[in-house]
Amino acid sequence: MTRTTRPTRSRIAWLAGCAVLLALAVLLSLAVGSRQIAPTEVMRALLHGGTSNDAEVVRSLRVPRTVIGILAGAALAVAGTVMQGITRNPIAEPGILGVSQGASAGVVCAIAFCGVHTLTGYVWFAFAGAALACVAVYVVAAGGHRGASPVKLALSGAAMNAFLASVVSGIATTDAHALDEFRFWQVGSISGRGTDVIGEIWPFVLAGLLLAGLLAKGLDALALGDDAARGLGHDAARLRVLGAVGATVLTGAAVAAVGPIAFTGLAVPHIARALVGSAHRWVLPVAALLGPVMILLSDVIGRVVFPPSEVPVAVMTALLGVPFLIALVRRRTVVAS
Amino acid sequence: MTRTESAAADTASARTATRPAGYAVARIGGASFLVHRRAVAVAGLLTVLLAAAVVLYLCVGDSFVSPVQVIDVLLGRPSPDELVVGTLRLPRLVVGLLAGAAFGVAGALVQTVARNPLASPDVIGVTHGAGAATVAAMSFGLVGHTTLPYVSVAGGLGAGLLVYAFAWRRGLHASRFVLVGIGVSIALGSLTQLFLTKGDYLVAQQAKVWLTGSLNSRGYDQAAPLALVLLVAVPAVLWAAWAQRGASFDDDTAVALGIRLDRMRLGLTLIGVVLASVATGATGPVDFVALLAPQIARRLTRTAQIPLLSSALTGALVVVVADLLARRLFSPVELPVGVLTAAVGAPYLMWLIARTRSRSGGSTS
């Protein structure tokens, strides 16, 4: 939000650099784990197939896991970018604002009360939950006469998180069958999700990303303030609604697939802005590349820290993301606004 | 107004020569105090309500026991319901009462010092710190069950210090403090998850039950350290409250009255953090009681300052009623009491936020 103009050439270089980084992260995600597989072996398994054990592990376990990580990472990072744009708030993020938890509570309710057991079924409940949480948190934070300051947004998000967590654990204690179904999904993790999950969520992720891309110009205008945006011919209210819809769809799809994962949507947009400036037509693609990098690297770290057990990716992103949040809060701009 | 209250004259005359409206004078021996009439009435009412809740709590359960029998058991008379009331329900009730009171006092202290209702121990990371430390100790089998309360106090203090250190930047800004607290809480929550995946399956199961904040199978073992800390802390706090009445004015006035604000604040915060941590050690994190109780108490007494005694009573009342509901609402399944307090407390927090007039970056004062 500070530096606005940058030579296009350096932006393209950063974009390419992020793509290379993503390729590296993908390779790591395919190669590292309780069974270490050499990169050459990974390449061979991908290109030529083969029936060796390594090839099996790569194709049936690690490829789906990695693809889901890429989808979820891109979705969450872009959702975070859009939320920060429409709220003009540096700490807006699906996890902190309780939107992820809303989607997750939606899924839990679908499983427990509506007898919905397929991803195609409960992705809609995830959208509904995310949308409700989104609206509730924003309405609460925007009350009072100074509007939604960072601290009010974060607090109402924290309250929403606590409330929904208590609803979920209430359901968990009273309904053992439902608990059995969502207990592994509820701690955000990208492992053990089958290939069918990919097939079911990619249309939603794609739609959300396209919507976010279409809003890039409008988000730039919103950054200048509502009046300026109006002067530039944008309808601020319509932009916010569309942005919220996009962020909700992205968050809902990601959560339905992998469970709630926080902080990807917080850290990535800030890193992206530091690299390519604040124009959203650059920030959005860079975030879409870096989000998967963060998820995949967190996942890889989670696989190796406590062998043989794996640490869920949501735990790792939170541990990596919180120092980032604190650094952000210590900067004067967040608190002064 | 009469000016015969000579014992309180040194402080009273510094502030105002006359007795403020709504106050009465209480004399104990040679000393006399200004007493807020409404506050006394509220404390009395809360005590009556609490006594009613206690009897109700002991009556209601899988088998109903008549109030007469309950009172017989409480007074130590022989009774056929000795087992159900005295052995099963009473220990659990005692833990709930003490933990609720501790949470209430802790919240009152921290909110008073921070002058911000949002800065309660459960928002700023103390309970999460106590939780993470306890789960770590349980999962790694570091210590025995008797030392767990100390571990939880250490965790709570550590988290409090961490938040303080991270939020300090040329002074302490209320909203930075709260934001850092939320961040640290999330990180500690994740660490807790990490420890849970690390530990033995059975231990993890145990730790998970503990983490939702439940009074189930809690007894005198947990109540003892809690009672001890309350016995030390509450008189200390009451004395401090009496000595520092001036601190509710703005800083300059208080300093002019000769109150060492920094030291007083640090001491009160420490006591608050210790109380919240010990209570968390006994019951697990029962969320939002520390936030709710002082606010309810203050709205009842309509005093400028948060009333300590009423906060303690409200805290105990909230926990006992919530646990009663948690036991019976979905019987035979029992909800953890923390689920219920969070379900009520979180919307209340949101309501507080919604009506905040953020004069200085979101702090309400």
Most residues in contact: chain pair: A-B, 50 and 53 residues
How large is the share of residues in beta strands of chain A?
Answer: under 5%
Percentage of helical residues of chain A? over 70%
Helix/strand/pairing class of chain A, anyone? mainly alpha
The CATH architecture of chain A can be named as: Orthogonal Bundle
Helix/strand order of chain B, N-terminal first: HEEHHHHHHHHHHHHH
Outline type of chain B: globular
Along the chain, the helix and strand elements of chain A come as HHHHHHHHHHHHHHH
User: Can you tell me the overall shape of chain A?
Assistant: globular
CATH topology of chain A: ABC transporter involved in vitamin B12 uptake, BtuC
Description:
With 337 residues, chain A is mostly helical. Chain A has a single domain (8-336), classed as ABC transporter involved in vitamin B12 uptake, BtuC (Orthogonal Bundle), CATH 1.10.3470. Chain A has helices spanning 8-31, 39-48, 53-87, 99-113, 119-142, 150-174, 176-186, 195-214, 216-222, 226-231, 236-258, 264-276, 280-305, 313-330, 332-336. The model of chain A has no long low-confidence stretch (mean pLDDT 83). Chain B is mainly α and 365 residues long. Chain B has a single domain (88-354), classed as ABC transporter involved in vitamin B12 uptake, BtuC (Orthogonal Bundle). In chain B, 67% of the residues lie in helices and 3% in strands. Chain B has 14 helices and two strands, in the order αββααααααααααααα. Chain B has helices at 9-15, 37-59, 67-74, 82-114, 126-139, 148-167, 174-198, 201-211, 220-243, 251-256, 261-283, 289-301, 308-328, 337-354; strands spanning 23-28, 31-36. Chain B has a two-stranded antiparallel sheet. In chain B, helix 4 crosses helix 13, helix 5 (126-139) packs across helix 6 and helix 5 (126-139) packs across helix 11. The longest helix of chain B is centred in the first third of the chain and has 33 residues, at 82-114. Residues 1-17 and 358-365 of chain B have low confidence and may be disordered.
